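SAMPLE LOG
Freezer: B-3
Tube label: C17
Construct: single chain, 66 aa
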Amino acid sequence: MNTSNSINVWNDLLDVQVTAERLSENLEAYKEILQEIRKLRNLDLTDVHPCIIFEPMTPYRQTDKE
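STRUCTURE (predicted):
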């Protein structure tokens, strides 16, 4: 990866000035976390249902009990 290009992308994205040294320090520090995130993204959760389902309209649904 071209370091100069990489720095420009980060500077544009974050709207902050990042030096090459700082960028490489940050990438090294977060390397393991990024690897774990990749593993999580590759998990097949097709048959796994969430334990909590957020349905904000549930209290407002009409029921036959009225």
